[in-house]
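Data availability (excerpt). The following record was deposited with the supplementary files.
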Amino acid sequence: MGKHVNIALFVPHAGCTHNCIFCNQKTISGKSEILSVNDVENACKTALNSGAKGGEIAFFGGSFTAIDENYMLTLLEAAYSFIKNGSFSGIRISTRPDCIDNYKLDILKKYGITAIELGCQSLDDEVLFKNARGHTCEDVVNASKLIREYGFELGHQMMTGMYGDLGKETAETVERIIEIHPDTVRVYPTIVLENTPLAKLYEKGEYVPQSLDYAVCECAEILLKFHNSGIKVIRLGLHSGGNVEDGYIAGAYHPAFRELVEGRIYRNLIEEKIEGISNKTIEVFVNSSEISKAIGQKKTNIEYFKTLGFDIKIKPCEKINRFEIALNL
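Predicted structure:
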């Protein structure tokens, strides 16, 4: 049995109809060259030679359904050959909400597309306008409905701390996404990258990015809300590698951002449970797969509770679900 591995293929800026003020995709993906058919074939063959089997081929980085149609078809044909022979289970793409219609979905249906992720970023029209997104909240709603009608898995991508977002807009975006109820969500705190309009706003003092701690706290609440609503969060924060560290200027970036967020969820859960308890030595039971998260990165949760006078011991219990705890006093 081969390893279930997804192949991520970046199409930098291809098809993007607007230059969002926060975006520098060369920095985000570490790539600037145009993706070729040979690139697709070589990436898939390399993965297969390494024992990969059954994952998805994913086209990210641009607005896939807005690129030149002939170019899109050549990429899809190259990828689809690996779907037809059973090497991979399907193709995942990301695109803009205003670049989805019946004609494009008919094409995607023919080429083994399994999932379509929409770069929503916000569901507040004013925030979208200030960030030069070029689409509206209504575009997200309409595109999501169409994608669902065609039977594709639906994904949403959102950002926190965007220019013009005071916090309530993020909270409202989360609630609206929950109403639409996509299958998956990716959550990205806004970071300031070099050579972007947002960098100029930051330099002039017109944009103040979130601190890492603030973004961790906010995303802990967001992750828990999506989890409790049955929506799978498949990424938190930009992936490390590529040129992200080199192009970073300011904002909430950390290579282990998800680990920090999940650790904060458990800190919050424990803190809520132990409030008012006089016993200072407490066993906290979590699912065995969640022990490292409950302890926190570099034991930060254990050390945090020591500062409050508590000796916390994290113990496994298979009967407890993810993001739940039980105490033994």
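Summary of structural features: The mean pLDDT is 92.
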